[in-house]
């Protein structure tokens, strides 16, 4: 499958939520935790494909405290957007994090 990357700037999650509120529309999101194994990552990508069919407003991928899973979280968010067209949000946990790493993520 080929990734499709939009040339339009992404809307912020709070803007997407506000649109739904303004239009009195129901919305939902999914939260995922980065897997600890390669097989878990493969399984999560399959789950992305399945969950995208339900058209969540966005997905949220947790970024572990101390940045343990930060690279994987970034990769998962980029690929979720590129391959499934789901808006992706990194749930940043900035405890014990290097400021430079947080700046890069933002």
Question: What do these coordinates show?
Answer:
By secondary structure, the protein is α/β, with parallel strands linked by helices. The protein is 44% helix and 12% strand. The protein has four helices and three strands; from the N terminus they run αβαβαβα. It has helices spanning 13-22, 38-52, 70-84, 99-105; strands spanning 29-32, 58-62, 88-91. A three-stranded parallel sheet has the order 1-2-3, with helices on one face. Strand 1 (29-32), helix 2 and strand 2 form a beta-alpha-beta unit. Helix 2 (38-52) runs parallel beside helix 3. The longest helix is centred in the middle third of the chain and has 15 residues, at 38-52. It is globular and about 40 Å long. The two termini are 28 Å apart. The model has no long low-confidence stretch (mean pLDDT 86).
Short key terms for the protein model shown above:
single chain, about 110 residues, alpha/beta, 3-stranded parallel beta sheet, 3 strands, about 10% strand
Strand content: 5-15%
Distance between the termini: 28 Å
Instruction: Tally the beta strands.
Output: 3
Please, what is the average pLDDT?
Answer: 86
Order of helices and strands: HEHEHEH
Q: List low-confidence stretches.
A: none
Main-sheet strand order equals 1-2-3
Largest sheet: 3 strands, parallel
Class from helix and strand fractions: alpha/beta
Percent helix range: 40-55%
């Amino acid at each position: 499958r080929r990734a499709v990357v939009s040339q339009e700037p992404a809307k912020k999650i709070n803007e997407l939520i506000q649109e739904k509120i303004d239009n009195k529309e129901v919305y939902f999101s999914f939260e995922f935790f980065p897997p600890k194994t390669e097989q878990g990552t493969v399984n999560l990508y399959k789950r992305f494909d399945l969950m995208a069919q339900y058209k969540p407003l966005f997905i949220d991928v947790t970024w572990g405290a101390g940045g343990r899973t930060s690279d994987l979280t970034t990769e998962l968010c980029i690929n979720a957007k590129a391959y499934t067209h789901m808006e992706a949000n990194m749930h940043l946990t900035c405890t014990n994090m290097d400021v430079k790493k947080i700046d890069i993520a933002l």
